[in-house]
Amino acid sequence: AQKVTQAQTEISVVEKEDVTLDCVYETRDTTYYLFWYKQPPSGELVFLIRRNSFDEQNEISGRYSWNFQKSTSSFNFTITASQVVDSAVYFCALKLGNTGKLIFGQGTTLQVKP
Amino acid sequence: NAGVTQTPKFQVLKTGQSMTLQCAQDMNHEYMSWYRQDPGMGLRLIHYSVGAGITDQGEVPNGYNVSRSTTEDFPLRLLSAAPSQTSVYFCASIESSGAGGELFFGEGSRLTVL
């Protein structure tokens, strides 16, 4: 069975703190894709990153970085020097290689206080 | 470029009423899908379509019907609305099922069933 677990329901930090959002996935497929989406208070889903199962290279984009480890089936997301505008719900999702279905985690609500 | 367009954005229904959520994409994507978002549960797949004339059930299909007469449109029908269908609904599309690209989401439709 395929599953995505985001164990952190809510996280609250003070601005400029670093914060890591955890994502653990389960699948027996060898070809899959992992995604992170941001959902700000306005409600839309904003695509952040896609990583395929054959590419374990970590990625950094500005204050955002992602750590993909197949050995622990994790795809964690770190925000460095958090800002109030980072306050949102963040979803991790798994897509199998031969389907268009996304399997979402429960989401982590991040609150960044000034 | 409009991307994925959902209408209406907000709707209030009484129990037993019927309605259709519209979804249209202008990217010539083969694959389209509907998700519902409920607090603490992430997004769950309702129905999906891999091409015109082909639809299939997702994780939570009960109470919903879909059809795909054209590549562009994928409406979601509630035949007899129930309070349990109060949710936020997202339509999404991707170029094809096996593609590793991102899913493009509509802005969401908030439905309340009284």
What is the compact description of this entry?
The complex is a heterodimer of chains A (114) and B (114). With 114 residues, chain A is mainly beta.
Order of helices and strands of chain B: EEEEEEEEEEE
Structural class of chain B: mainly beta
Number of strands of chain B: 11
The oligomeric state of the chains shown is heterodimer
How big a fraction of the residues of chain A is strand?
A: over 45%
- How big is the Rg of chain A? 14 Å
**Helix count from the secondary structure assignment of chain B:** 0
Percentage of residues in strands of chain B:
over 45%
Task: Indicate the topology.
The complex is a heterodimer of chains A (114) and B (114).
Chain A: E1 3-5, E2 10-14, E3 19-21, E4 24-26, E5 32-39, E6 46-52, E7 59-61, E8 64-69, E9 74-79, E10 88-96, E11 102-104, E12 108-113
Parallel strand pairs in A: 2-12
Antiparallel strand pairs in A: 1-4, 3-9, 5-6, 5-10, 7-8, 8-9, 10-11, 10-12
Chain B: E1 4-7, E2 10-13, E3 19-25, E4 31-37, E5 43-51, E6 54-57, E7 64-66, E8 76-78, E9 87-94, E10 104-105, E11 109-113
Parallel strand pairs in B: 2-11
Antiparallel strand pairs in B: 1-3, 3-8, 4-5, 4-9, 5-6, 7-8, 9-10, 9-11
